[in-house]
Write a structure and sequence with these properties.
By secondary structure, the chain is an alpha/beta fold. The chain has helices at about 25-35, 55-70; strands at about 10, 15, 40, 45-50. The protein starts with 9 loop residues before the first strand and ends in a 9-residue tail after the last helix.
Length: about 80
């Protein structure tokens, strides 16, 4: 990310993780740290999904997206 400035940028992170590794979701943790270092505002805890999302994790992802869109006042009816 070099010297990029992200001050004021609102960021939410999510991604696939794997429990077989000693530090679950470490890549997301590192990315979160980099965004913060460059001034971005993390608006939600990173959503870590075990490899392939189950229904519960898919609902959590939808809930996160809905909350972020509500914050930006974006109509969610057009989003699948």
């Amino acid at each position: 990310m070099g010297e990029i400035q992200l001050k004021g940028l609102q960021v939410a992170l999510f991604g696939s993780c794997d429990f077989m590794y000693p530090k679950y979701g470490r890549a997301l943790d590192l990315i979160e740290g980099r965004f913060q270092k460059h001034g971005a505002q993390i608006v939600a805890a990173p959503l870590k999904v075990e490899i392939d999302p189950r229904e519960e994790e898919a609902r959590a992802a939808r809930k996160l997206v809905d909350a972020l869109l509500q914050k930006k006042k974006v109509k969610t009816s057009a989003i699948p």
